[in-house]
Specification:
Layout: H1 3-9, H2 12-21, H3 23-29, H4 42-56, H5 79-92, H6 94-120, H7 123-137, H8 146-164, H9 173-183, H10 187-200, E1 205-207, E2 210-212, H11 217-233, H12 241-253, H13 255-260, H14 272-291, E3 295-296, H15 297-312, H16 317-335, H17 347-363, H18 368-378, H19 384-391, E4 395-398, H20 403-409, H21 422-426, H22 429-437, H23 442-448, E5 451-456, H24 461-467, E6 472-477, E7 482-486
Parallel strand pairs: 2-3, 4-5
Antiparallel strand pairs: 1-2, 5-7, 6-7
Helix pairs in contact: 2-7, 2-17, 4-5, 4-20, 5-6, 6-7, 6-8, 6-16, 7-16, 8-9, 8-10, 9-11, 10-11, 10-15, 14-16, 15-16, 22-23
């Protein structure tokens, strides 16, 4: 390859972009330990739903997997996002799931980089801000359907940014929301941000560092028509109004689930993510005071809403990364980074680093054997034969995190609860689960549901209680799972 070709392809910006591609591995994928692919309890439930859809050609509308809420109405609110993971699994097994997740994460990372670069026009500032966004997002990285929701959100923000700069692509929002409603409930966040964007243009003026520019009548009318069309296409889904209503059910009717599930809890400032949030927000505050850069009203409102959401529920740190980090990129230019001088380009060194990054990524894609081994560390793999032989005709009380795994791998044994808590909270099952696991009348609740087998982590309080009960005995136990069987009824 000639020196001119080297200089053209192996540039410093290209090297930084390649380095960004391995950021998810370093930040959170933890593939040497099996990664989050096998620690996420929801993926198995999603695979089972997709399998039902493909095998029956019907959308599931009832609970088919538990004995506690069997045949009750249930909405599969993420059905479209399940399909890529299911296809990946059918083609390449667990590794296929990993690769689908990796592709989605990489698209998000590059989408954030594009947003940062369009804001600041500096590759170094965009690179650093994108890396910080990946660290924010690490709280939510895994084989999760929400990744497709964040991809849609990124697309929306890019479209809105273009509109503010005079490039009209608003029509793309309509098909985007038509797809988004079937992918994930984050469509409601996207719609909320769209309304904030529209409302910010109803004001005009400057207030300190804040500024607002009023929409022209033609702009305003087009925005309102587009918003109306986006709301209308939300009903283009197989569940109708029930799918549109589901996010509101989560907000107003699933209070116990929100308190119980870890990712819905507030940010703990004693953890890595809490300290990262403080450092980033403090840095942004200092930069803003020092530079006194004017803030567009919609940008300020976006930042406030995403900050509140992230501090209230740590799962929305991902949202904060998408919104806050492009703003941070703007502040980094001049304050930290000087514009890149292409004359200092070192193509051979860049090529060496790029090759190293690519090799690192390829080496850290886990083998099927490594994924299977890691699976046994988080799920009751070895206990399944005993569960089948001892509990085939019994009601099984299972760990919440294992419900999805069991309905995928032990299909003839209905579970007590699976990893999707919505329907179980509505019917009081989740409350009973928490009573049992916290030893609040555990034995009476087990009797009420006629539980014949209990499958939990061996260090759980209930296992200790039942081990010392004359009516129960340990059928199987290893480092991951303990199976206890009732001896008398």
């Amino acid at each position: 390859m000639s020196s001119s070709a080297l200089s053209r392809f192996f540039t410093f910006p290209a090297m930084l972009i390649t380095a960004l591609s391995v950021s998810p591995f370093i930040a959170s994928l933890d593939v040497q330990q099996g990664g989050p692919i096998l620690r996420d309890p929801d993926i198995w439930w999603h695979l089972r739903n997709a399998d039902f859809l493909f095998s029956t050609q019907h959308f599931p509308t009832k609970d088919l997997y538990s004995f506690t809420t069997h045949a009750d109405t249930r909405v599969n609110f993420e059905w479209l996002a399940e399909i890529p993971y299911y296809v990946g699994f059918r083609l390449l097994g667990d590794r296929g799931i990993f690769l689908v997740m990796l592709i989605a994460v990489e698209l998000i990372v590059f989408g954030i980089f594009l947003l940062c670069y369009r804001r600041c026009a500096d590759v170094k500032a965009a690179f650093l801000a994108s890396w910080i966004a990946v660290l924010f997002a690490s709280v939510n990285i895994g084989p999760r359907t929400i990744l497709f929701g964040w991809l849609c959100f990124l697309a929306e923000i890019l479209i809105l940014e273009s509109y503010r700069k005079g490039r009209d692509r608003l029509w793309l929002l309509v098909p985007l929301f038509a797809v988004w409603i079937n992918l994930h409930g984050t469509w409601l966040i996207g719609l909320g941000f769209f309304f904030i964007f529209i409302a910010s243009g109803f004001f005009h003026g400057t207030w300190g560092s804040m500024e607002a520019v009023r929409w022209k009548p033609q702009q305003r009318n087009k925005l309102l028509v587009t918003a109306s069309a986006c709301c209308a296409v939300l009903f283009l889904n197989p569940y109708g109004w029930r799918l549109v209503a589901y996010p509101f059910d989560t907000i107003f009717e699933q209070n116990l689930s929100v308190r119980f599930i870890d990712e819905w809890r507030s940010v703990d400032f004693q953890t890595f993510h809490g300290k990262l949030v403080f450092v980033v927000f403090a840095g942004l505050f200092i930069f803003t005071l020092a530079r006194r850069r004017p803030w567009p009203l919609h940008e300020l409102l976006f930042a406030l809403v995403s900050t509140y959401a992230a501090l209230t529920h740590k799962r929305f740190l991902f949202l904060a990364g998408i919104i806050i980090c492009p703003i941070l990129a703007v502040e980094l230019v001049g304050a930290v980074f000087e514009p890149h001088d292409s004359k200092t380009n070192k193509p051979l060194l860049n090529a060496l680093f790029m090759a190293g990054y690519c090799a690192f990524a390829i080496f850290h894609i886990p083998t099927p054997a490594k994924l299977k081994d890691a699976e046994s560390q988080y799920f009751p793999v070895a206990a399944l034969p005993q569960l089948q032989s001892s509990c085939a005709n019994a009601h099984v009380f299972n760990a919440y995190e294992w419900g999805g795994y069991l309905i995928w791998n032990q299909r003839n044994i209905p579970v007590f609860i699976d990893s999707r808590a919505d329907i179980f909270e509505h019917h009081g099952v989740l409350a009973d689960y928490l009573k049992v696991t916290s030893l609040d009348g555990s034995l009476s609740v087990l009797d009420h549901y006629q539980i014949g087998c209990v499958l939990l982590q061996p260090n759980s309080q209930l296992v200790t209680l039942l081990e010392n009960s004359p009516n129960w005995h340990v059928q199987y136990q290893d480092a991951t799972a303990a199976l206890l069987v009732r001896t008398t009824h």
